[in-house]
Amino acid sequence: MLYIYNTLSRVKQPFKPLHEGRVGMYVCGPTVYGDAHLGHARPAITFDILFRYLTHLGYKVRYVRNITDVGHLEHDADSGEDKIAKKARLEQLEPMEVVQYFLNRYHHDMEALNVLPPSIEPHASGHIIEQIEYVKKILESGYAYESKGSVYFDVAKYNKDHNYGKLSGRNIEDLLSTTRELDGQDEKHNPLDFALWKKAAPEHIMHWPSPWSEGFPGWHLECSTMGEKYLGEEFDIHGGGMDLMFPHHECEIAQSVAAKGHDTVRYWMHNNMITIAGKKMGKSYNNFITLEQFFKGEHPLLSRPYSPMVIRFFILQAHYRSTVDFSDAALEAADKALQKMLDGYRRLQALVPAEKSSVELPDFAAKCYEAMDDDLNTPMVIAELFDACRYINQASDGLITLDAADIDKLKDLFKTFLIDLLGIRVDNAGADSNTAQTKAFEGAVDLLMDVRKNAKAAKDWATSDFIRDRLAALGFDVKDTKNGVEWKIKSN
Ligand code: ZN
């Protein structure tokens, strides 16, 4: 039985979907006005694991991850302009060109990280009519008001009848005393009120007609609207990064309760944040490292490139609810660990079964399922796989024997947990060259191994040693094992 930690109830709960055999999940996707960085990778990978696991358990999963391409209220501090619109103006592009450009790059990064595409990827800009209808419903319920062409959510009024702050655990009185003055303050009854619809300033290039003004929807509204449109008035899981818990998700709850009279989401899930060398990622720290910079090693904080699988493995080595601190040294360690795991995987493929197993293998699969069922405990799954690698290495070194059934069990274990659920690519992982090149290269080295084997069989020691020594000089580690010859490139 899968248990997941529900941010709303603050306990791990057994997961029971609303509809037998089907799961609806919604995750807040990227705002597309810049390249994806680590802050994008963690939620994408966290919910990719959940998506993969639920699918593996036999559920038909509808996974919706939105694209925020309008109405993002996190305006540029200097000009008060929407960031996509500003970029479009500066570079003389149509705003949708900016969106498409960064969306293509985002997809490319996600594919590199082996993050599966969601079932539906709706754009906020494609759901303006639905969002206007949603605003109307909140106005009808009395929890919103119109002011100078904009529509605001009445937080104080809502809080009298319902509990604003129940997800993040914030107290509205505290909030009132700490909230600073905001843009458009004079239009609001209260600084905590948030925009459902915003009248566009004349220079604002992304705007649509509405009953209130030519304008654009508030950011929080798109998720309430598209979640309901694609998953229904009540659905199973809503996820996102912890930084979205307040105000974004809190506002989503308030909107749906105001419009529908009830909560929409049954399980709220939040991944923790990533820090870089102990610091929050932020412009002022100059430590925003984009995924592409990681893949290419092009950043002063990086000593070399790191393959997407190393980034993925690094993130999965921590539980999604704990913090992760990125540093060059930590990535180096993750790379070593991943290579060790992949070595184990390759040696497993080459194992020759013995008549009888000389040891009794622990039930690794049961332990891995137990770990996944415990709120997606990926570090525990990785620990179990490393334990399995110990047995594989011992068998490969001739210290123990494993029969065919045990070897098949181990192969199933790695296929299910390493490849299918953790989503680690085992072919070409860690290499930056393309697959065809790698295949040709590996084939050529294997060919040399065959020549050496034949030389040895013919007692031509000179040729056999020549090949071994020259390969060693090139950085190859050639090992004669019970199952034949193994080779790998020595890591420094
Ligand atoms: Zn959202």
Describe the 3D structure.
The chain has helices spanning 38-56, 83-90, 95-112, 128-141, 155-161, 172-178, 219-231, 245-260, 291-296, 308-316, 328-350, 364-373, 378-396, 404-421, 435-457, 461-473, and strands at 3-6, 11-14, 22-27, 60-65, 144-147, 150-153, 195-199, 215-217, 235-241, 265-271, 274-276, 279-280, 324-326, 476-481, 484-489. With 492 residues, the chain is α/β, with parallel strands linked by helices. Helix 4 (128-141) packs across helix 7 (219-231). The structure holds zinc ion. Zinc ion (ZN) binds next to loops.
How is the secondary structure organized here?
Layout: E1 3-6, E2 11-14, E3 22-27, H1 38-56, E4 60-65, H2 83-90, H3 95-112, H4 128-141, E5 144-147, E6 150-153, H5 155-161, H6 172-178, E7 195-199, E8 215-217, H7 219-231, E9 235-241, H8 245-260, E10 265-271, E11 274-276, E12 279-280, H9 291-296, H10 308-316, E13 324-326, H11 328-350, H12 364-373, H13 378-396, H14 404-421, H15 435-457, H16 461-473, E14 476-481, E15 484-489
Parallel strand pairs: 3-4, 3-9, 9-10, 11-13
Antiparallel strand pairs: 1-2, 5-6, 6-7, 7-8, 11-12, 14-15
Helix pairs in contact: 2-3, 4-7, 4-8, 7-8, 10-11, 11-13, 12-13, 13-14, 15-16
This protein binds zinc ion (ZN).
Zinc ion is lined by residues 28, 223, 248.
